[in-house]
Specification:
The protein has helices spanning 18-25, 42-55, 65-70, 80-99, 113-124, 139-145, 150-155, 186-199; strands spanning 31-35, 60-64, 103-107, 130-136, 177-180. The protein is an alpha/beta fold. The chain has a five-stranded parallel β-sheet with strand order 2-3-1-4-5, with helices on both faces. Helix 2 crosses helix 8 and helix 4 (80-99) runs parallel beside helix 5 (113-124). The chain is globular, with a radius of gyration of 18 Å. It starts with 17 loop residues before the first helix and ends in a 20-residue tail after the last helix. Bound molecules: adenosine-5'-diphosphate (ADP).
């Protein structure tokens, strides 16, 4: 449990309600939480889904594990405590995105069930949707894919605490969606997720109108 250091802080409410934001964008903010081993396909699917949602006229944004560790979480390593803090911060960022009416797609190994459950509780406390997707792929296939050469380094002992090799992964017990990425193509996975979102009224069945002209950036 992280120590709370800030005192004498008072919440300052804004004037734009969720309903007003929803009226503008045509959908609510919610979280799609991808979890799975390294190289199981989380980033690939998050990016493909971001594009599918964008083309559907929805505001969506990827929070990618490696990218977030370049900035916000660049002071965290891979010890159990740091992994928990990594996920706690992302859960809080995802909460801000939901409040802003944006769909966030989080691509983090997030190996501990309790950390994912905390992220879910944060969403459900606000009656927000939290869609956990188990990106399931056998470790031998992940190891063959190894797009970033991480398994090779973990086997050689260069990377310590590597999930699936020298650190645990606790699979979700009841994910909203379970995808076997060694059996389904990326396009098929995107279809499964989009169908789920439409069936549960998280996004409209018909695409929102998309602004096709862009405002030029100021010089
Ligand atoms: P992760 O983010 O989980 O570490 P990546 O998305 O970086 O994984 O890498 C997954 C690799 O697996 C990519 O090279 C991707 O092209 C490949 N792949 C094959 N089939 C799938 C699928 N159905 N879904 C996602 N990735 C897939």
């Amino acid at each position: 449990m992280i120590e709370r250091k800030a005192t004498n802080i008072v919440w300052h409410a804004g004037r734009i309600t969720r309903a007003r934001r929803e009226g503008l964008s045509g959908h609510r903010g919610f979280t799609i939480w991808f979890t799975g081993l390294s190289a199981s396909g989380k980033s690939t699917l998050a990016v493909a889904m971001e594009e599918a949602l964008f083309e559907h006229g929805c505001h969506a944004y990827v929070l990618d594990g490696d990218n977030v560790r370049h900035g916000l979480n660049n002071n965290l390593g891979f010890s159990p405590e740091d992994r928990t803090e990594n996920i706690r911060r992302i859960a809080e960022v995802a909460k801000l995105f939901r409040d802003a009416g944006v769909i966030s797609l989080t691509a983090f190994i997030s190996p501990y069930r309790s950390d994912r459950d905390s992220a879910r509780k944060l969403a459900e406390a606000e009656h927000d949707a939290f869609i956990e997707i188990f990106v399931d792929c056998p470790i031998n296939v992940c190891e063959q894919r190894d797009p970033k050469g991480m398994y090779q380094k973990a086997r050689a002992g260069i990377i310590k605490d590597f999930t699936g090799i020298s650190a645990p992964y606790e699979p979700p017990e009841k994910p909203e969606i379970h995808l076997r990425t060694d059996q389904l193509t990326v396009d098929r996975c995107v279809c499964v997720i989009m169908d789920h979102l439409k069936q549960h009224n998280y996004i409209p069945c018909a695409p929102n109108r998309i602004q096709t002209t862009y405002y030029a950036a100021a010089p």
